[in-house]
Design brief:
The complex is a heterodimer of chains A (124) and B (356). Chain A has 124 residues and is mostly helical. Chain A has eight helices and no strands. In chain A, 76% of the residues lie in helices and 0% in strands. In chain A, helix 3 packs antiparallel against helix 4, helix 4 runs antiparallel to helix 5 and helix 5 packs parallel to helix 8. The termini of chain A are far apart. Chain B is an alpha+beta fold. The relative contact order of chain B is 0.14.
Chain lengths: 124, 356
């Protein structure tokens, strides 16, 4: 009897949230927490930023990369993408300062070309 | 019969008052570096900021030397404050299906604000002690205090010997998005009001300087890239300490901000725009960007680093009598940097009544 009641309860518990999740709006604070958590380390932060870029959220991606760089200022990858995005929002002066902080030889040809595509050609 | 009605009315009004007193959460501490502290109207004693703790309306954010805090607001707008800054979110109205309107005060230090969504109506504002910035969907940065004076003094767009109040002087810069922005972003604009005069900015890197209470904004002028690099270093002290930011051969190509933000200055002015050598390349190993016009920080003004002939550097900065020494740490037990472990599990929410 107790087992049956437990089984029914589990089914109900599993079933209810599915419907509830479909209807409930996302918790904005939980979303902010997840964004903060993801950008505390480089790889998840870069993934989040690239996802935001894919969704056209350039300013959100900039903010994500700024969080990554807060903890990992040594990350060429994050700074390069930040500089590229800064160009894409038409702030070329700001982007130039960031490109200057990077060593193109360390970044690599392909990444450098990708990042600077929005900022005219940057001679290495 | 009359008495119970009055009592019920008092109880109800008391209940409403309690609900109204509950702090309105507007965002979270999304990134923290160094000594960052939070105070609230109900707990005015500043306490260490906790990563991902909630920020409520009227909470006071303050940072120490070489410190930085990013606040992520509900609409995904972002406020970042750098070293020795004071920020308060005074008003915040957000409807996920409608718009966002807010008012914030930056009393001191350097900040960067990025809109989470376009706000074309201009109902959001950032106030400094002597200037009001009307924000219309934009990226805006500012410096308030002695660093603003130090940076403005080196700007060709600011008249020499401009009297300034080092406590409240405000330098405001529009960073974008510009008209050439991508992904359908709305170009940003700001209106800066000081001394009953308003100046509108709608181009990235346009700046205004409000030197003292009651003074009209000076500008708009295009901030020099050395000046912009100094602002950047104030907002992001972690990047200012990035290895490799000092030019090869040593030396600093431009004067540093007054604040103690780190050991190594950014190398920003090593970049040269245009190619004045006709393709020979810069003697100091800097990079040119073909196709981009040579940057002119101000008509008639001296070149400061950018575009200057190789080997010629900006003059050394004179000691600034307006500079105040950095304040001592408020809590010596707090390490100067790396206070928060981003890899650590999320800390429990702060013990503030009414906050989740």
């Amino acid at each position: 009897m107790g087992v049956r009641i437990l089984g029914v309860s589990l089914l109900a518990a599993l079933a209810l949230p599915v419907g509830a999740q479909a209807a409930a709006p996302p918790d904005p604070l939980a979303e902010l927490d997840a964004m903060s958590r993801a950008s505390a380390t480089i790889a998840p932060g870069m993934a989040l930023a690239r996802g935001q870029i894919a969704n056209g959220e350039l300013l959100g991606a900039l903010a994500t990369l700024e969080r990554v760089l807060t903890y990992h200022p040594e990350s060429d990858e994050a700074l390069l993408l930040h500089a590229s995005l800064t160009c894409r929002v038409d702030d070329r002066g700001g982007a130039l300062i960031e490109f200057e902080a990077l060593d193109p030889d360390r970044v690599g040809d392909a990444r450098w070309r990708e990042a600077t595509a929005s900022c005219h050609t940057v001679r290495r | 019969m009359f008495k119970p009605v009055i009592s019920l009315g008092l109880l109800l009004s008391g209940g409403v008052a309690l609900a109204a007193d509950a702090p309105q959460v507007v965002g979270i501490n999304s990134a923290i570096l160094g000594d960052a502290r939070i105070s609230s109207p109900t707990a005015p004693q500043p306490r260490p900021a906790v990563l991902r703790a909630r920020i409520a309306l009227a909470d006071g954010v303050q940072t120490g030397a070489r410190s930085q805090l990013q606040v992520l607001l509900l609409d995904k707008s972002v406020f970042t404050v750098g070293a020795n800054a004071r920020l308060t979110i005074d008003r915040y109205v957000y409807d996920p299906n409608g718009g966002r309107s807010f008012s914030a005060t930056v009393a001191q230090g350097a900040f960067r604000f990025m809109s989470g969504r376009a706000d074309r109506r201009g109902t959001s504002s950032i106030n400094t002690p002597i200037a009001a910035i009307g924000v219309r969907g934009t990226i805006v940065e500012g410096v308030i205090g002695p660093d603003a004076v130090a940076i403005a003094r080196s700007e060709p767009g600011v008249p020499r010997n401009t009297p300034a109040d080092p406590a409240t002087a405000s330098l405001i810069i529009l960073r974008g998005p510009g008209a050439g922005t991508q992904a359908g972003l709305v170009p940003g604009a700001i209106d800066v009001t000081g001394g009953n005069h308003t100046v509108s900015l709608d181009q990235p890197l346009q700046a205004v300087y409000v030197p003292a209470p009651g003074a009209a904004p000076i500008g708009p002028f295009t901030i020099s890239l050395p000046g912009l690099a100094r602002v950047h270093a104030l907002i992001f002290p972690s990047l200012a300490s990035r290895p490799g930011l000092v030019r090869s051969g040593g030396g600093t190509p431009y004067p540093l901000p007054a604040s103690d933000y780190g050991h190594r200055p950014p190398r920003g002015v090593g970049v040269l725009l245009g190619d004045p050598t006709g393709g020979q390349g810069p003697a100091d190993g800097g990079r040119y960007i073909p196709g981009v016009p040579t940057y002119d920080p101000g008509a008639g003004g001296p070149q400061q680093g950018y575009g200057a002939p190789a080997g010629q550097q900006a003059p050394a900065q004179q000691p600034d009598p307006a500079r105040k020494p950095p304040p001592p740490p408020q809590n010596p037990s707090v390490p100067p940097s790396g206070q928060q472990d981003p890899a650590a599990p999320p800390p429990p929410p702060p013990q503030v009544p009414g906050k989740p």
